[in-house]
From TrEMBL:
InterPro entries: PilZ_domain. This is PilZ domain-containing protein. Residues 8-85 form the PilZ domain. It comes from hydrothermal vent metagenome. GO terms for molecular function: cyclic-di-GMP binding.
Length: 85
């Protein structure tokens, strides 16, 4: 199996909200993140592979802003998605 990752993965447990076209479709928890993408555990299948989504990573520190990123789903299972930035 070929590893297509551009960066090293880092474990992270952060709540996220997932949107398509401005509409919230799911909540999730980040499993890991890298320079080039993110893996998110979700309760339901979010979108087809190659679909574009917006992700909001919730920042729990006081007086900090949430982080907004746009990406493409490159892998989707019943309980998780992998998104490339």
């Amino acid at each position: 199996m070929v590893n297509h990752r551009w960066g090293r993965r880092h474990k992270l447990a952060s709540d996220v909200r997932i949107y398509i076209g401005g509409e919230k479709i799911a909540d999730g928890i980040v499993r890991n993140i890298s320079y080039s993408g993110i893996c998110i555990d979700i309760a339901k299948k979010a979108s087809p592979i190659h679909g574009f989504i917006d992700i909001v990573l919730e920042h729990n520190a006081k007086n900090e802003h949430d982080i907004h990123v746009h990406g493409m789903i490159v892998r989707s299972t019943k309980n998780s998605i992998a998104v490339m930035f």
